[in-house]
Amino acid sequence: MAFDPAERYDPFMTRRTLCALPCFCSGLRAFDWPNWRGPSFDGVSHLMCLDRGSGKTLWQAGLEYSASDRTHATNPQCSSSPVTDGKRVYAWLGSAGFVAFDLKGKELWRRELGKQDHVWGYGSSPILHGGLVILNFGPGDPSFLVAMDAASGKTEWKVELAPRLPAEDVVKAGELPPRPDGAIRSDFFGSWTTPVVVRASGRDEMVCNLARRVVAFDPKTGRELWTCGGFADLAYGSPAPGLDDVTATRRMWHVAHTPARIGTSVIYQGYIYAVGINGVAECLELATGKPVWTQRLAGKQGNNAIWSSPLRSGDKLYVMNQSGDTFVYRASPNFELLATNALEEDTNSSVVASDGGIFLRTHQSLWCIA
What we know:
Elements: E1 2-3, E2 44-50, E3 57-64, E4 83-84, E5 88-92, E6 98-102, E7 107-111, E8 127-129, E9 132-137, E10 143-149, E11 155-161, H1 167-173, E12 190-191, E13 196-200, E14 203-210, E15 213-217, E16 224-229, E17 234-235, E18 244-245, E19 266-268, E20 271-275, E21 280-285, E22 291-296, E23 311-313, E24 316-320, E25 325-330, E26 337-342, E27 352-354, E28 357-361, E29 366-369
Parallel strand pairs: 1-23, 12-17, 16-18
Antiparallel strand pairs: 2-3, 4-5, 5-6, 6-7, 8-9, 9-10, 10-11, 13-14, 14-15, 15-16, 19-20, 20-21, 21-22, 23-24, 24-25, 25-26, 27-28, 28-29
């Protein structure tokens, strides 16, 4: 996402640890991106509000939930993010449910959407649009898109999604040998992504990166507007901003084999800036998909894998690797590394900027750099 230093917004953040799920609530205004959340390991799913300037805990609220959600060691249960409309805070706490609080931590409503179960956990965050709070509930069985009234939690529409790899594809590919994480062939399917609402052709379209296809829905009704196929079975990154199937008629270009990516790319001045799981940054021509440059981002720690999304501020890009190294490089067709800073703490999170401050969330800490 792009950050304009002149534009104020306040990130809501939560994390799943023994003691803290931070969020910010000083100087609030409506904004639905980017944030963090997650329950603790004490049987209660927590949301905490921290003072933006000092980090002091202002309030803490949560839901009791004694069971556990499956996940992978590389995906701690802190991937989904709460959002705010300036009146309420909305958080998806996995199988514990979906909940809305006021800005002082009072619970306003909650919904039990069902058991969230996938061997690699979940990661989608809710979004706000037109008085609705919308969630991509998945991956796993069940998987669906659901829109709830922001004031009451009432379901306004729901779209069922394919929960697992089709049986015929499992038979065709064959079952996997035993894996340490317990995954089976049918687990290699689903969407961890957060939808994005864009204005196109005079209407609002909610674009969602799903397994094997990108789909646009009417955010008011859930009606499918268009779909484009040719994508992977596992969908991680959100779209970077017709009718029916536009795969053949409106798809500009297609690269069949690309490096595995989890983070969302950035589009800026005719170029796409992407980062792969392998820690390699790329610049591509937006119009053609032609590679302009690739560069390995070598950090100061041992693990250079990157699961986070780049943040753009002006012509600079900020991205963290899993070792907590933050790279700053130029958003330009000519690669230029500007800085590398090490926190020496593990993370999958993205850099967030607000009011001249930079917020970094690791598995151990929440950092504010002003």
